[in-house]
Every structure is written in C-alpha cells, then in structure tokens.
Write a sequence for this structure.
C-alpha cells in the first residue's frame, strides 16, 4: 500500500520534477531533495526563496509558492545538494529543521523509490541516465570509422568542470552538457558559460563505441540534424516574474544560435554557410566523441547501451580513429565567383589572374556546391583543392548537373572524387510559360540550407524581371528540421533566434560574390515566415523593384504597407485578355460592407480567360468566379450577364494601392470541392446540439467504406468519386480503377490506393477530417440582383422558422447527371461556416433557395446584399475577396440551436508609423510578428480547453480565446499583437493531443471519442505486385524507343526526387498524389497540398511536352500511332526497373555466419513507378484496346476505326467516337452475353438484362467462346482482359470468378430483401424498348429498364432501392431539396446511409432470390462499372440525444443508379486533365 501511494505521489508531481529525480550515475553524485518551506513572509517572491536556498549551498530545481494561507506563506521546493552532503541533511530522514531567521524546512530525501524503469530483464535501464565525461570532441566523420576533430572541450580547459551526457527516456532526448570559457565584452572579462546541446534520440543516426588508452570508454555519436543549443544565464532573477508563483530551473536555459569565444561576435555579420567565427559550428559539426570519465561504472555504460538499443540505435563496437583538423578548409581555397558572363567557360583560364591556390567557380556551380555542403551530402572536411580544380575543369553546365545529381542521391559521399564517375543530371527542358526556375534557402537557428533550383509557378514581379530570375532567392525561416516552425514564448528565452532572423533581413545572405538583400514577402509567405531576397545588379536593386510594384506612399500602417507590397508576389497566371476597367460603388449598411472584395466580369471575358487557361470555355461549363490580381486590386470577379464585351467592374473595397501595371492575373477559379469537418467545426456543432451519435456514426461509416474499398472496386469508385480532394487526385485514381488497373492489381494503382487510405485515416485520427457528402467547400460571392433575403437582427435566438432565415443560392456540379456541364441547385435548410470556426455564432443556419436570376453562377455560394449585417462577416469574420465557405445540407448535421449571436469581429485600431514607412520598418515588423504571433497557440488552447470544460466552446475561457484568436488573425493587418494571458494556458492535455511529454488525461468528449475510433493504417507500397500484361504485351517495342524512354525517365526521376528533397517527403507516391503523410514542416499541412499540387501539375505538363517531342508529335496532334508505343514503352521500362530492384531485394548473402538481405525494400532503394502515369488516360486506352484505329486526322467512317486529333476518334461522321472498353467488373456481369457486336454502334452498346444469379452462383454454367491468342496469353497470366478480333467483336471472358469477400469487419445490420421502386422521371419514351417484367415482383418492385432510344443511345430509368423494413431515423430535421436549374435537370435525391446490403454476397443472394434482374445503362463513356450491382450508397448520419451510438451502417434507404457514375468520373477526369 505504501509503495502504491509513493508511486501515485510520484506520478502526480510536476513533470520536470519527475524528470530531475532520477539518480546520478556519475562519480560526482548530487542528492535530490524535496522539501516544504513554511512560515514565509507574505511578501516573499520566488527570488526570495531562491536566494535563501542558494545561501545554504543547494541548487534549486523547482519552486512552487503557496499563498493561499492567510498569515504566512509556504513553498514546495526541489533542489540538488552537492557532495559532500551537508550535516543538516546527512541522515536522509524526514524531519523539520530551522532555516533562516524564522523559516522552517521539512525535508524529505528522494531516495529514488518513484524512479521509472524501462526495458525487461537484463536490458532494464532507468528513465534518466547521467554519465560524467572527461571531454567532448566536436567534428565530422572523414569516413566510416575516422573522425575529424574540429574542436575539443575538456575538464582541463575550464574552471568549473561539468561535462555530462544525459539520456532522458520520458522526454526522448539526449543532452550534451559542457562549459566554455568566453569573453564578455561588456564586463571586459572572461566568464564560464554552461551550454546544453539537446537532440531527440530519433535524430541519432549511428553510435560507435571504443576503448581509450586510459581504460575509459568513448562514444562517437553521429546526428542526422543539428541539436537545439542552450546557454544557462547567470542572472536567475531575470527569469522570475513577481506575479508568478512557479519557477523552474529550465527557465534559465536560453536558446543559442552559435557558440563563440566572444559573445559580441555575430551581431552584424552577413548570413552565409561559412562560419569561421564559431568556436563550435553547431549546424555543420554533427559528430560528437564523448569520452567518459574514469569513474563511470560499467553499469552506467550498460544502461546507455540498453536505452539506445530500445530506440533501435545499435551501438557498434569499433576502434575510433581521430584525425586532426585540416590546415586548409573549403573556404580557404574556394574563391569568389567570377563574373556571370563567363559562366559557360572553364574556370581554369581565370586562375592566372588570381592568387595561387584559389579556385573560382561560376555562380551556378558555386551555388550547387553550397547546396551539397549545406545539406550534408559533401562535407568541407573532405573537400580539398584537387577536388575544386577537377570540378572547375568540367565547365559550368556539366559541373552543375553533376552536383545536382549528388543532391538528388541524398547520401553522404566521403570521397568527393567519386562523384566524377557519376552521370550528371539530364539537361533541363523548356518549361511552361507560366513557370520559372526558383532558388530557395532555409534559415535555421544554427545554419542555412540551400536547395537545388526547382520549377515553380511565377508571379508578377518575376515575370517582369524574367531576365534576372536567377537572382531571386526564396527564403524561409524555420527551427531545426525536426521542430518545424519557430515557436515564441512569453519571455525572452528565444530572443537570440529572432535576432538571427533580424540580422538576415537587414544584412542579407551571401553566396559566392552575390549578396542577396531583402526584397519583400507575399502574404502567404508572411504566414509561413518566408520572404523574397534579390541579388542586385549594376542598375537594378530591390528598391527599384519595389518602386515598380506601385505607389505605397499613402499607406502609413506598417503591417498594411507590407501586405500591399505582398500582393505582387501572389502566385498567378497572367492573361493576355484584359478588358476596360470601370468603378462601381460598394454596398454598405450599418457599418458593414456587403460587397467586400467582390467585383464583376463580363461573360465574354470570362470565356476568353478560361480558354487562355486551357479550361472548359463553353457557356455551360465556363467558370463563374475568378480570384484575381489586377494592378493594385485584389479579390474575386463574378460573372454578370448584364455586362457586354470585355469588361471588368471593380469596387473600392478591392482597390488597395495605385499601380501602373494593370494586366489581369488569375489566382484560381471557382470549382466544387468536397466538404469535410475538422476538430474546430466538430466542437462548434457539438456545442450547438449535434449529438455525438451522429458524428461517430459518420466516422464509422467512413472507416468501414475505406476498408472495403481496398478490395471492392465499386466501393472504391463510389468513395473516390465523392471524396474529391483539392487537386482532384481521387478522380484520377477512380479513372484508373475504371480501366481495370485495380482488378489487375497494378502495383502503382494499388500503392496509391493504399496511400489514399493511410492518408485518410491519418487525418481522421489527427484532425477529425470527416467527409460530408451533402456538403460543398466553395468560394463566396454577393447577390448582385438583391433578390436574396438577408439577416435580420430582429430574429430571435431560439427561432426555428425557416421563413425568417437568411437566404443563399448555390448551384453545384451534378455528379449524377448525364453528360457534361450539368449542375444542380440546392434548396432547403443548410449550415454555412468558414474555417477556422471557434465561436458558437460562427456557424450560421441559412435557407438555400432557387433564384432564376442567379442561375448563371455555378460552384460558388451566393450571399445576400440585404439585411442588417452581411453573412460573410458573421462566419468567423470572413469577407468575399477569395474566402472559401463550407455549406452543408445534411439534415443530420443541422444543429438544434439556429441563431446564436455572432461575435463582433471589428479589428483593433492599427499601429501607424510616425513618418513614411521604410524597409527597416517592414523587416522589423516581420521579426516582431514572428516573435509575438500567438495564433497557433491560441487555436490549440481553444481546442484543449473546450475539451476540458463541460460546456465546451461556450465556456468563458473559450469565448475569450475566440476573441483573442480574431485579434491574432488581424495582427498581420493592424500590427496589434494578441497577448496570450497565463490563465488561459493549457495545464493538462487530452489524450488525443498525443503530447507524451505533457501531463495528460483521457478525454470523454466528442474529440476523444472520435480519436479512439480510428486506428491509423501504415502505408506499404505494392512493389511486389506484377505489372499489367495488357500493356506489357500490347506492342513490340524497339530498342531505340526504349532507350529514348529511359533517357526521359532519368530526367523525370531526378525531378521527382528533387521535389521530395525540397519538402522532406518520403515517397514518390505522396508527391504524385499530394497525399502527404509527413514532410519537413516548412509549410503547414493545409498549405502543402496546394503548393505540391501546383508543382506536380507543372512537372507533368513539362514532361508531357518532352514526351510528345521525343515520340515525334505535339501536344496538339498527339498522334496515336506514335504515342501508343511510347506510353507503353514508359510502362515497360518502369516494369523492368522495378523487377530488377525486386530481384536485388530477394538476394541474400552470408555475413557473420548468417544469411542476410543485401538490399531492403524501401523507398530509397526502389525505383519510381509514377513515370508512365502522367499519361494515365492513354494507359487505360492501351489496356482496354481502345484507340486501335486512331489516327491524327479524324474519323474514317465505317466500322469504328475512328480517328481524331488526339487519337481518340473523330467526329460523329467518322464512325465510333470511342470503342468499347469493359473492365473486369462489367465483364463479370456480362457473363451471359459474352459477345457484343460493335458494328454501326455510335456509343456503347445496349446490354440486355443480366440475371444476377449467373453472377452469384459459382456453379453456374457459362458460355466458353474461344478467346483470341492475345486473350489466351493474358488469361494465363491471371489478368483481366478484353480480347479483340478483326471484326470489331469483343469476346468477354467466360470464367466468372465469385465476388471477392472482404475481410473487413463491419457493424452488422439486419438485411432485408431489396425492393426496387419504379422511378419514372426524365425517361425518354421509346416505342421499340423491350418491356422487362418479373412475375414475382409486385407493382412497387419494378425493375431497372434499359430502353434503346431511336438515336442509338440507351436510356436507363432511375431505380431506387429501399429497405423492406422500417428503420429508426434519429431526429426530424428539415430535409433539403434540390430544384432543377435552367441548365440541368436534377432529380430529387433521397438521403441514403452508409452500408448497402448489396455489399455482401449473402445479401446479393437474397436480392437474386427475389428474382430481381439487373440491367446496365449504356451511356457510360469509359466503362459501365456501375453495372456490377452498382452501389451509389451514401452515409446518412443519424442523431439522437437519448440513444447511444448505434451500430455503423444501419440501412435506411439505398439508391441504385446505373447511369452517371462513369460519366461523372470521365467529366471529372477531364477537368483534372485540363
């Protein structure tokens, strides 16, 4: 019992106290004591207690003041007592003694009873291990077993010997503690400074252990990244605030950027990779040789080995050779860059004009060399003059490409002369006109990392000065790679980090002879702590560039000035077509602007803009809203049918500054994006009355669907086509499944499918990112007609009258309508929100209506211009200058509280400069903003406190945080920071926060429940899967073609690996899909997908053009007779390289008497597979034998041998526009009709009724037509196929496998016979249509009829499947409806649920027993996947205040729609292609 109480006491102590209590395994033992000081004067502070303890020769660790008593105060203290132990504590008994004049101290010696141990058996070790050292040698590895010692710190060199290695298991860190004698310029004397280098154990790459001559042990520890450096300050009182009641010894440790012998060095120096002034180069010397003291026991060393082994770090016993510091460093022989005009020549010719022993490299080579050195691929200890001379001999272009290759390998090269045996990177090809090559750098506290030049979308400034594009440098400021963003604190412990940033902004960055000076920063860069620098030429400087941007002299607010300059750096595409600009007034009322940021554009100019961007430009499909930049104007332009010709109308709220440049630039267009919940939205919905049951059911349904989608193609198609990501990658994956690549288990298709699931579950667990099918995430605009009703302040808070709700209009893409350019109008009660939402009033309940005058606006939400207050500002203080809004019309998510009072989002008065704003003002504000930016801390605290308090976000602390959050958002515009008060700081963390180093509790609120429901799925690529023989055997490819393909592939691989290196991404699959699992945190999670999407799209465009050129065609012709073999060759070459890599993985060799694997199957060792998939549509055409008769000159008529410019068939007069393509799912269904005649058929044929029994019964007899020779070979390989013969007759496979049974575990529900209800809407009558009836089915169970129309197209009736058994529906919210627009016919959609009985083979059998036939609609352009018991079933979340969480997948109603799914995929795929 006593032991249990002691353990409980230990676990409830403050965390740092527990960390410090572990015993000291060093010869200089200190004893840690805990005590209570009583009878303290009421006016005593932390400093008084600290001085009292120091006076008695002890080292305070923690002080907790207790001022709750009326008369006298007390304090809990923890301190170290050095050896020899004073008499007053020598006995180690709990006793009370007198200390000071009146104070009493009750001492309790900490004997280690609460110490935590880890490991098992002989491998046990304590939670904290301290090993005393004799010296630490800092340096770098010269080779695998030799270390170059650059600097040594030993006990003989300092007055206060204190060298320690501390392993703290609980914090997961290793600390290297030592002291250095430094000169203090202010005091003109030398002082001993204590330093601590802290590194996560996960950042230790390798450890060598070896004996020394004096019977001591050395550990050579190699790091992956620089440590966090700290210095202990001498003025302890500086770390204590009179208002504080708690002090910790950790507060005396201040972050450092360097260790120098002179504390004044570095205050005005330029930022460069060369760091000669440092006593210890923290960023470059990443190998430490820790020499143990002679008194260190074998037990302590054993503990260290066990702790490292427990973190998968093997300690290798190997003698360590030390090499002295080289006499001449890299910077001694590397001279400044020669003039850029001579970059194409050899550097040797210039040696005669410079001092002997110097090498002068062209700037492009010098920069790339610094890339390799800064990234650690080449180290300066290995680079000598011979290397420099040989590099100079190569010439600028070859040397640069060779160094680029070194950077792409991402491996440390010990012998730099080995790189000359490599093949350099391929020369760059012509890039798209809207792109540019950008150099970039990352400034960390201890070093600078340069990155290889990369392709990026340009901006206005770089386009204007394109001839000097290589002189721009994009810079980001970050903490060390494993820390991400630099976090500020309320004190000055990180001041030196921000001083380094200020020095960079004011003094600039040096590379060779180029001095990059601060230029400006874009608004998105500002949020990510980044800026642009420029290296001036003789007649062009940063000041001249800023003067060209516009006239900012009238702006006196520094924050606003910087923001306006940043407009010019927005990533945009310049348009050639720009119409005349007219001014129109804003609509303002009651102090609110209803048109803030929105202007108008004529339909003609909108069409011209879409055409110029390569987007659909028909009147039915043209974008309705454009986010733009135009001179000094910004915001959005909405199409207005009343404007004629080329015309743009701008409002005053859009004009930010005057500028001479008035070209139209487009940032993005309006498009439909899937709606997702997040943690903040979930908290607000929960506070407004949405039940936990509803949200958990939605989550469970999503998880079960994801699991089933890994084995069921129809489920995968349904999810992918509905869960559309920002870059619409899911649409691409769906089209790949449609082409049968999931059925053939193509390795790339299966890999990205697995990645999609891993990525989805990751964000479900970490962010509660729950898909909402009945929702959209779209741009907001204003109702220019004034027909929508606005918000009224007279509406009561508890009102549930729909007629009093403000109105919106929303028309979005209809994924279920046939053909392209079809939209549906949402009507009914909806919720409107904007990210981030922290206040209960941020989510507004509105009424979606159909307004005919607004039907020209698509894929955007139209907000009213009437009412007492604009709706946009009520949604988290939004406006209409490009904000996206979340609109949800799912009745289950409709809150019980409809009209909570919104928060007042009025900004604070801005800080105005005394005079004209200068560059120094801008750079100073940049650094000050970084230091005082509390936005992320406030948002995090809001989530944690909302979870902790019973009333959630309605608690007064959360409401205060919501107001502070708004102020922190406005800080970038007003210059007024939001101070984060200590009473709102988080003191305990919910378990879902995953803060293992903090005191946590198990959350019982909604976020905790959602977190517990999800188990992350690790991503394992399908490298072992066989490639698709449909493509491997499609063509006989020449060696010349394959050699040319390999050349392009090499260049592609280099580019994709460069992107991986730039963002710290582990695999090419994450780059290609933008489903990033982890990255270097230089961009936030929400931003990385957007940035990566632009980069990958540019990469694909660039290499497509290169492939067209190599194949002998153009992007306009795309001749199929040359592109078909070329694309197949890309696939074949990839298959060969992956196959060879797998062969190496399977090889084994004997090492140390054991059979070991030579090469591990990791992303670093496996070749890329994404190369051929930039032509994913062409791969599908080859696999399914489409386009076999294609030519580049149009259709040839007759029997379907069509043509067309892209090889996909000609016009209607040229025969078949696309030949039949059936994937395995449809082939299975078509078992009873195995031959389909194609002669004279314009589109896909009309399939007759297919009996489900023929699909379900494994013993059913099937027709066995003799397959073609190609089909036989494919069938033997086990791949799905679509054989072709000379008569254009497609023979379907006859061996029909049984439906796959998913291993997924789902919540079960009672399945009932499925009944089909006749839906007669939108049916095209046809006299020749066969009537399909079933005698066993009542009139309410009509089948899905296929009616061939006179035009040759099949017309499919809609079929609705409902459960035969009544199910409980939680709540009775108003169900929103949809109404047809002028442009589309949209059927009323029911609200379906998650799990269909059609998923299960048993339920399918019941369906078959009912005698219900299945038929396939024929207007499916790629393949009729929907015909395989097509299930387009959606989740219907339910809610109940009384009922517990029900089992996932209760069947309420099901919808079977054989039409529209593939058409949707094809349309979305087309959008993705453009």
């Amino acid at each position: 019992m006593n032991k249990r109480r002691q353990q409980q006491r230990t676990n409830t102590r403050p965390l740092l106290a527990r960390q410090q209590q572990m015993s000291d395994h060093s010869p200089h033992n200190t004893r840690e004591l805990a005590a209570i000081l009583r009878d303290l004067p009421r006016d005593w502070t932390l400093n008084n207690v600290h001085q009292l303890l120091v006076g008695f020769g002890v080292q305070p660790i923690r002080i907790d003041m207790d001022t709750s008593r009326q008369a006298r105060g007390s304090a809990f203290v923890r301190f170290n007592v050095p050896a020899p132990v004073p008499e007053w504590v020598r006995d180690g008994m709990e006793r009370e003694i007198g200390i000071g004049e009146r104070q009493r101290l009750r001492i309790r010696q900490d004997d280690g009873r609460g110490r935590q141990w880890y490991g098992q058996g002989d491998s046990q070790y304590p939670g904290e291990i301290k090993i005393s050292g004799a010296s630490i040698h800092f340096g770098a590895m010269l080779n695998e077993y030799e270390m170059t010692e650059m600097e040594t710190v030993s006990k003989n060199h300092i007055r206060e010997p204190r060298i320690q290695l501390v392993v703290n298991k609980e914090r997961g860190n290793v600390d290297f503690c030592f002291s250095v004698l430094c000169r203090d310029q202010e005091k003109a004397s030398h002082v001993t400074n204590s330093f601590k280098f802290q590194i996560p154990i996960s950042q230790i790459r390798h450890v060598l252990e070896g004996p020394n001559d004096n019977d001591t042990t050395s550990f050579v520890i190699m790091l992956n990244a620089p440590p966090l450096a700290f210095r202990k300050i001498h003025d302890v009182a500086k770390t204590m605030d009179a208002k504080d009641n708690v002090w910790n010894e950790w507060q005396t440790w201040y972050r450092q950027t360097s260790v120098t012998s002179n504390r004044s060095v570095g205050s005005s120096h330029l930022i460069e990779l060369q760091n000669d002034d440092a006593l210890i180069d923290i960023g470059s010397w990443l190998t430490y040789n820790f020499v143990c003291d002679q008194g260190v026991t074998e037990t302590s060393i054993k503990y260290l080995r066990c702790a490292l082994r427990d973190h998968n770090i093997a300690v290798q016993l190997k003698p360590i050779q030390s090499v002295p510091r080289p006499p001449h460093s890299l910077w001694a022989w590397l001279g400044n860059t020669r003039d850029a005009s001579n970059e194409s020549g050899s550097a040797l010719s210039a040696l005669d004009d410079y001092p002997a022993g110097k090498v002068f490299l062209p700037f492009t080579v010098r920069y790339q060399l610094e890339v390799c050195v800064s990234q650690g691929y080449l180290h300066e200890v290995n680079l000598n003059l011979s290397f420099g001379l040989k590099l100079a001999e190569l010439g600028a272009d070859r040397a640069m490409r060779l160094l680029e290759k070194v950077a792409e390998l991402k491996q440390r090269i010990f012998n730099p002369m080995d790189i000359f045996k490599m093949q350099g990177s391929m020369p760059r090809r012509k890039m798209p006109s809207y792109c540019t090559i950008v150099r970039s750098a990352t400034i960390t506290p201890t070093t600078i990392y340069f990155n290889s030049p990369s392709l990026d979308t340009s901006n206005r400034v770089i386009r204007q000065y394109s001839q000097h594009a290589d002189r721009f440098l994009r810079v980001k400021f970050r903490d060390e790679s494993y820390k991400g963003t630099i976090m500020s604190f309320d004190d000055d412990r990180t001041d030196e980090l921000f001083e380094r940033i200020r020095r960079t902004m004011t003094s600039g960055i040096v590379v060779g002879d180029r001095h990059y000076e601060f230029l400006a920063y874009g608004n998105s860069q500002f949020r990510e702590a980044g800026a642009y620098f420029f290296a001036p030429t003789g007649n062009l400087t940063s000041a001249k560039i800023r003067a060209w941007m516009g006239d900012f002299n009238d702006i006196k607010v520094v924050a606003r000035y910087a923001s306006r300059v940043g407009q010019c750096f927005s990533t945009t595409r310049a348009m050639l077509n720009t119409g005349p600009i007219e001014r129109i007034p804003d609509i303002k009322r009651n102090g609110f602007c209803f048109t803030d940021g929105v202007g108008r554009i004529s339909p003609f100019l909108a069409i011209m803009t879409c055409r110029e961007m390569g987007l659909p430009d028909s009147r039915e499909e043209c974008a309705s809203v454009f986010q733009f930049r135009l001179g000094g104007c910004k915001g959005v332009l909405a199409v207005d049918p009343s404007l004629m010709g080329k015309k743009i109308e701008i409002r005053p709220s859009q004009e930010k500054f005057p500028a001479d440049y008035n070209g139209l630039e487009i940032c993005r267009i309006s498009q439909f994006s899937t709606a997702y919940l997040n943690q903040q939205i979930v908290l607000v919905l929960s506070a407004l009355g949405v039940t936990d049951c509803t949200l958990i059911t939605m989550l469970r349904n999503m998880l079960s669907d994801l699991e089933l989608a890994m084995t069921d193609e129809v489920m995968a198609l349904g999810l992918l086509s509905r869960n559309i990501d920002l870059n619409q990658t899911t649409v691409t994956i769906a089209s790949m499944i449609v082409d049968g690549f999931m059925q053939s288990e193509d390795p790339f298709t299966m890999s990205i499918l697995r990645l999609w699931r891993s990525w989805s579950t990751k964000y479900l667990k970490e962010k509660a990112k729950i898909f909402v099918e009945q929702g959209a995430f779209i741009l907001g605009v204003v109702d220019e007609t004034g027909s929508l009703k606005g918000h009224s302040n007279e509406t009561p808070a508890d009102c549930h009258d729909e007629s009093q709700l403000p109105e919106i209009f929303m028309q979005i893409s209809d994924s279920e309508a046939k053909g392209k350019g079809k939209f549906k109008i949402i009507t009914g009660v909806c919720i409107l929100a904007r990210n981030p939402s922290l206040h209960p009033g941020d989510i507004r309940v509105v009424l979606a209506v159909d307004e005919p005058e607004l039907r020209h606006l698509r894929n955007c939400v139209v907000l009213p211009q009437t009412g007492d207050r604009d709706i946009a500002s009520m949604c988290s203080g939004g406006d209409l200058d490009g904000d996206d809004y979340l609109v949800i019309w799912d009745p289950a998510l409709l809150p019980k509280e409809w009209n909570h009072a919104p928060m007042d989002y009025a900004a604070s008065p801005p800080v105005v400069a005394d005079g004209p704003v200068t560059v120094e003002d801008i750079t100073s504000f940049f650094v000050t903003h970084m230091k005082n930016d509390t936005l992320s801390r406030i948002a995090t605290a809001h989530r944690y406190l909302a979870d902790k308090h019973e009333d959630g976000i309605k608690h007064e602390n959360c409401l205060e945080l919501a107001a502070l959050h708004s102020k922190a958002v406005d800080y970038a515009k007003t210059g007024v920071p939001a101070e984060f008060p200590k009473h709102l700081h988080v003191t305990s963390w919910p378990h879902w926060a995953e803060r293992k180093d903090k005191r946590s509790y198990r959350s019982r609120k909604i976020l905790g429940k959602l977190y517990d429901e999800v188990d992350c799925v690790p991503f394992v690529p399908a490298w072992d899967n066989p490639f698709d023989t449909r493509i491997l055997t499609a063509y006989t490819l020449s060696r010349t073609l394959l050699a040319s393909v390999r050349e392009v592939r090499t260049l592609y691989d280099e580019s994709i690996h460069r992107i991986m290196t730039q963002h710290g991404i582990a695999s090419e699959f994450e780059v290609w899909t933008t489903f990033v699992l982890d990255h270097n945190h230089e961009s936030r999670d929400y931003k990385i997908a957007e940035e990566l999407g632009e980069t990958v799209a540019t990469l694909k465009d660039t290499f497509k053009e290169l492939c067209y050129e190599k194949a002998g065609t153009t992007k306009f012709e795309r001749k199929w007779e040359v592109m078909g073999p070329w694309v197949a060759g890309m696939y074949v070459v990839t298959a060969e390289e992956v196959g060879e890599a797998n062969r190496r993985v399977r090889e084994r060799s004997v090492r140390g008497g054991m059979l070991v694997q030579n090469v591990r199957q990791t992303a670093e060792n496996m070749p890329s597979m994404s190369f051929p998939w930039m032509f994913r549509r062409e791969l599908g055409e080859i696999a399914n034998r489409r386009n076999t008769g294609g030519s580049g000159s149009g259709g040839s008529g007759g029997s379907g041998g069509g043509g067309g410019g892209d090889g996909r068939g000609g016009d209607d007069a040229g025969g078949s526009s696309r030949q039949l393509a059936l994937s395995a799912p449809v082939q299975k269904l078509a078992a009873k009709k195995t031959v389909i005649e194609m002669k004279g058929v314009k589109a896909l044929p009309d399939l007759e009724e297919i009996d489900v029994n023929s699909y379900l019964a494994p013993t059913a007899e099937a027709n066995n037509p003799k397959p073609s020779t190609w089909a036989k070979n494919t069938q033997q390989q086990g791949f799905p196929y679509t054989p072709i013969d000379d008569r254009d007759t497609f023979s379907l496979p006859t061996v029909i496998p049984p439906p796959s049974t998913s291993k997924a575990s789902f919540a079960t529900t009672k399945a009932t016979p499925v009944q089909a209800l006749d839906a007669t809407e939108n049916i095209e009558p046809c006299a020749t249509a066969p009537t399909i009836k079933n005698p066993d089915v009542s009139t309410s169970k009509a089948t899905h009829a296929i009616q061939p129309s006179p035009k040759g197209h099949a017309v499919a009736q809609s079929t609705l499947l409902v459960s035969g058994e009544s199910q409980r529906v939680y709540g009775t919210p108003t169900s929103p409806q949809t109404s047809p627009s002028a442009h589309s016919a949209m059927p009323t959609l029911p609200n379906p649920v998650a799990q269909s009985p059609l998923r299960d083979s048993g339920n399918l059998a019941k369906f078959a027993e009912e005698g219900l036939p299945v038929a396939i609609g024929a207007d499916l352009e790629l393949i009729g996947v929907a015909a395989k018991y097509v299930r387009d079933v959606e989740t219907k979340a339910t809610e109940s205040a009384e009922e517990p969480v029900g089992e996932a997948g209760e069947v309420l109603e099901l919808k079977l729609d054989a039409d529209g799914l593939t058409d949707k995929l094809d349309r979305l795929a087309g959008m993705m292609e453009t």
User: Anything to note?
Assistant: Residues 1085-1111 form the longest helix (27 residues). Residues 1378 and 1388 are 6 Å apart (CA to CA). The chain has 36 helices and 55 strands. The longest strand covers residues 128-141.
